[in-house]
Amino acid sequence: MKKKTEKQTNRPIDEAPASPGRRTFVGGIASLSAASLFATPIAHSQNATSVSRSRVSAQLSASDATTITETTTGKLRGYRRNGIYTFKGVPYGASTSGTRRFMPPAKPEPWAGVRNALQYGRVCLNRDSAHFITDGHNSASSDEDSFVLHRGAAAPVMGEDCLRVNVWTPEINGTHKRPVMVFMHGGGYTSGNAHELLSYDGENLARNHDIVTVTNNHRLNVFGYLNLASLGGKEFAESANVGLLDLVAVLEWVRDNIVNFGGDPNNVTIFGQSGGGGKVLALMAMPAAKGLFHRAIVQSGPYLKVLPPEYSARVAELVLKELGLSPSQVDQLQQVSVDRLEGAGVEAIKKMPDIEGSPLRRSFGLSGWGPTADGLVLPQHPFDPAAPAISASVPMITGTNLNEFINGVDRPNANSMSLAELHRLIQQGLGDKSQAIIEAYRRDYPKANPFSLYATIAASSVRHGSFEQARRKAALHSAPVYSYIYSWRTPVLDDRPGPFHAAELAFVFDNADICDHYSAGSPEASALSRQMSTAWVNFARTGNPNHNSIPHWPEYTAENPATMYFNTPCEVRIDAEGEGLRLIAHT
């Protein structure tokens, strides 16, 4: 299909990295300056225009008189800063230790008096909380990765009593009902937490857009996804997916409590990035979650399938073996120390075959830790062979970042890649059609240098999953679905990183100003941050992401497969990367 555009860019999305001088942000974002963007009221976000986007000279209070609210389990004391109330580490479930390990979450224990909600709570145990994915493999977080993503924004305290939510809101104990946006963190189903990145801070999203922001911690890895059903019988029937049931409990807590935080329980959007996007997709296929959310956003979560029962059951057998337990001693797993159990889980996964393939031909969700299509909690694969009918009425956004896992972070010589090396790598990963694939991508991104082109082609497995979600959702002919590609390049580190995995989070949360290691404090970054966050919030408010500071963003349909490119400026393309992706699919 011939490519169409709704708006021409002054700086092409595929432009090869230029010198720092050329990357100076002259004139803001071409036809729309940051100043004019902020001066123009945006639909449904009028309150944001009169409030400072900075934390300079913050006014803060934590007071019995003004920052206490009520939940179903007791009173909470939070704090108020520059008009936004924050409550951190709020229990939405009881401790999952001892006999509650591998069990569905229980309601939190009520407390007497006033409980402080001033600091983040515990996170699920994992050895790789500061993980970084590069070239399809997990490794320790790098210095550059940690720098641009502002990792370690708050040091995690780990433990099994980790079922906690964090809430940011403009109002408590009032009558105004705002849209609620519930975020699921990344890290696959193995690691991560709700405060490992500064991007996740929900204060600016609540302040600038008059909504309620909720983040959460939940069970991961061996604690959340150990399939003991075939070994432990009925008692452990749901053990393979208790991490997902934690997320249902988050949404139930929102339903039962969010009115006292100024939120509307009948207007809840779930959104997540990477593994968090996979969690959103799983919730869309879960009977237990039906009716608890009303919109869904998937960011770089290319999952279509989850684990088959035979795979996760084999992992469970290996965990028992690592601990020296027989299949008849399943109940003793609830008495094993957390360190031993987690270590056994790590070793068990190492012994399982990797069925995800090479970085250029990956399938997501088919190995490692993750949910299981158990026929009970998760009756089917979330988006295979079709989008879930159970959430047909839920509008959806799905998208990816231009480069994702292979990018210029920790690659000081990335932009010196030769054409010969590009051809060698693509031929090695994709075979005899490599020349045609490169030529197809060159037509899409004619100004990309060899490394940028390689990084974009390497994201094809992520792009395929996202576009397939959009196609299958659109095929239900019910609620709309919107597709995007995030393609803005940070000038930090000599314009080398590219639009990498998780880069968009600072802008989605409207945190460009505080995440300056990534945004560089530039006017165009602040403007794009407002454009993206406003699109996300308008979608949460109405089911339609459009607003007057971006080109019209059409629904994705079979007849008109439209994709918004978030860049400076934004543009819409039809059948984005279509020719290249079709060639890759047939290699």
Give the helices and strands, then pairings:
Elements lengths: L33 H6 L20 E2 L6 E4 L2 E4 L1 E3 L2 E8 L22 E3 L14 E4 L2 E4 L2 H7 L14 E6 L8 E7 L18 H7 L2 E6 L3 H4 L4 H4 L9 H16 L5 E11 L1 H10 L10 E5 L9 H14 L15 H14 L44 E6 L17 H12 L3 H11 L5 H9 L1 H15 L6 E6 L18 H4 L7 H4 L3 H20 L19 E5 L4 E4 L3 H8 L2
Parallel strand pairs: 3-6, 10-11, 10-12, 12-13, 13-14, 14-15, 15-16
Antiparallel strand pairs: 1-4, 2-3, 4-5, 5-9, 7-8, 9-11, 16-17
Descriptive account of the structure:
- With 587 residues, the chain is of the alpha/beta class.
- It has a single domain (1-587), classed as Alpha/Beta hydrolase fold, catalytic domain (Rossmann fold, 3-Layer(aba) Sandwich), CATH 3.40.50.
- It contains 17 helices and 17 strands.
- Strand 2 and strand 3 form a beta hairpin.
- Helix 8 (309-322) crosses helix 9 (338-351) and helix 11 runs antiparallel to helix 17 (578-585).
- Residues 1-13, 15-56 and 129-140 have low confidence and may be disordered.
Helix content class: 25-40%
CATH fold name, please?
Answer: Rossmann fold
Based on secondary structure, the structural category is: alpha/beta
Number of domains: 1
Which homologous superfamily in CATH is the superfamily? Alpha/Beta hydrolase fold, catalytic domain
Write down the overall geometry: globular
Note the main sheet: 12 strands, mixed
CA-based gyration radius: 23 Å
The strands making up the biggest β-sheet line up spatially as: 1-4-5-9-11-10-12-13-14-15-16-17
- What average pLDDT do the residues reach? 88
